[in-house]
Amino acid sequence: MEEQIADASPAMRRLEWLCDASAAIGALVLVALALMTTVSVIGRAFFAHPILGDVELVQLGCAVVVASFLPYTQFRKANIIVDFFTTKASASAQRMMDAFGLLLYTLMLALVTWRVAAGGIAIHEAQERSMLMDLPLWIPYVLMLPGLSLCVLIGLVQFVELLRAPAQEEVQA
Question: Is residue 4 pLDDT above 60, yes or no?
Fold first, then answer.
């Protein structure tokens, strides 16, 4: 994998950097949520005083964390796939099924991205806020969009590369 990345185009190296940055941001948010949960549990157990709204923050933060990690896993093709039925298929058939699966995944993520954006706009217009901490609920929606959008872009790039792969193999043969 490292050899493939070293030979990658400048655009792919930029995409990789963006994926790494997105994952790092997601990791920082996840660590912050874990620390806050730990402090809240200790406060609840020993001082009868948990952090007010800790569950709200974990719920809102986890959505951002997941959206931040998706581009990293997609770029490295680390999503779980079930290849039980395709292991005996020819290389070209596997490539076409992989391309079809990747296209479906990318289209699904594009739909999710669109609905997250539309939902965030609707929540912003309705001025919805969290119950305990009175936080604006549109903020996590906005924070999810960069990761989701990056994942869609990566899926499109990988789909195009996968479609071009057979032509490249024929040239090498």
Answer: no
Q: In this structure, are residues 67 and 52 in contact, taking their beta carbons and an 8 Å threshold? A: no
Does the pLDDT value for residue 170 go beyond 60? no
Residue with tokens 């874990």: 34
Confidence class for position 7, pLDDT limits 50, 70, 90 = low
Query: Between helices 91-126 and 138-172, what is the axis angle to 10°?
Result: 160
Neighbours of 133 (CB within 10 A): 13
**CB 76, CB 1: distance < 8 Å:** yes
The range of the structural domain enclosing residue 63 comes to 2-172
Beta-carbon contacts of 158 under 8 Å, excluding residues fewer than 6 positions away, are: 74, 77, 102
Contacts 24+ apart (CB under 8 A), 110-115: 110/152, 112/148, 113/145, 113/148, 113/149, 113/152
More confident position, 163 or 84:
163
Q: What is the pTM of this model?
A: 0.87
- Please tell me the total number of residues recorded for the chain in this structure: 173
Q: Where are the beta strands (DSSP E) in the chain?
A: none
pLDDT at position 81 is 79
Strand ranges inside 14-73, DSSP E: none
Number of structural domains found in the chain: 1
Q: Which residue has the tokens 């969009």?
A: 145
